[in-house]
Amino acid sequence: MADTPRFNPKDPAHDPAEGEGPIPRQQTGEQQAEPDTGKPAVHPVDEKLPPLKMATTGLQHVAAMYAGVVAPPLIVGAAVGLSATELTFLTGACLFTAGLATFLQTLGLWNIGARLPFVNGVTFAGVAPMLAVVDSTDDKKDALPIIFGAVIVAGVLGFIGAPFFSKLVRFFPPVVTGTVITLIGVSLMPVAFGWAQGPSPDAPDFGSATNLGLAGITLLVVLLLRRFTSGFVKQIAVLLGLVIGTVIAIPFGATDFGPVAEADIIGFPTPFHFGPPQFALAAIISLCVVMVVSMTESTADMLALGEIVDKPADEKTIAAGLRADTLGSAISPIFNGFMCSAFAQNIGLVAMTRIRSRFVVAAGGGFLVLMGLCPIAASLIAVVPRPVLGGAGVVLFGSVAASGIQTLVKAGLEKDNNVLIVAVSLAVGIIPITAPEFYHAFPETAKIILDSGISTGCVAAVLLNLVFNHLGRGQGRDSDDVTAPMEPAADLPAHRQGAGAH
Length: 502
Prior knowledge:
Layout: H1 51-80, H2 84-106, E1 120-122, H3 127-136, H4 143-165, H5 174-197, H6 209-228, H7 231-235, H8 237-249, H9 258-262, H10 281-308, H11 315-331, E2 340-342, H12 345-353, H13 358-373, H14 375-382, H15 386-409, H16 416-429, H17 431-434, H18 444-450, H19 453-469
Antiparallel strand pairs: 1-2
Helix pairs in contact: 1-2, 1-3, 1-13, 2-11, 2-13, 4-10, 4-11, 5-10, 5-15, 5-16, 5-19, 6-8, 6-15, 10-11, 12-15, 13-14, 16-19
């Protein structure tokens, strides 16, 4: 990587509350002494904000990822046939374990945790195989213990393999990371559009003008706050947009306060509440595949977040982050939770607010633990209508894609090799979005990987980068600049026309 400007806390360009331009990059983990005091400068990732600011911005992270955390337990719990009380318990357990995993990732323990503003929660990649386990289990009461046993094994194996998996970071130059970051944002956009239409496709008002209007109003509020406010108010624009959107939704009957009235004040996720873990080979293999997919996406997410917060993730950071993911997954079933992974949507929040402190996200982890222990607190977030979340999601997920484009600008797209890498990788990555049934004829195990555009796009970018920029004659064409994606050789200057020949 090229040398980049170092962090200077007295430079207004580095103040998260000031300026509108992209955040300049810095040296990984490097501190520079202040000329007047001689004290080392604190990187924004390690900055501790005032308590009120930390709490509100942490709550903003929880609001952004809440729907993603509660969706898997609601879906799997319903398939198992849990009662409303048991379903609430399972959801609270997943919130609790998401908070523990977020603590591991942000605060760190020994060589565990990337120590970046990284939110962890239940990965949606495991929903399909978990439903397959439920369908193949004769006694549905055994389904959750079988799932929990498989997650524990997958987590332990992933923890052991994390240092080896992290060595793949050398295969992620800017042309690869930029492509993956862009794919993360693009892949998340359908989630925001789905939220904007309503809570359920089966509902009669799904996609109604009212729901889309609420999403549009929320988006407009966030944009207005970002445009016409400054400082702290500007930084919590998404949280304020969610609150204002929820209030506006009340007269339309889109805000349901029922969860608050029915929730208990205190509730602890009793270990192995649904029974001791059971270990079935088929379920273990299936969840191990999910773990590999999850680790691939987490690696891409860490690289993306490292670029956004100006603290590029190296091999050591990725290994520590993967250890947090996998250890969190291994511990989660003890408290009746599922496999944990990084939440890409929160990367968009970091990119948009420019608040890079990992302690802010740790505060969000504290809220998650609190909601797991206090169901009535969790229900307050559940009050936010799904269309309101959708309106805010457009900004959050779009910010991730924009960050990817910024990285691609630095990746040397004047080189025809890199143009081809980006073009094909993006095409492969958006297949699950544009053609959801494209892989319908493949085995279910293969579809777990193929239906993840982030994973397939990431693999395609890595392989193409190796082929075009590292193997054989690919290196010889690395300097072939283009002014258009597929510039004909005849259009090159005379002295360049034979550059690629050997």
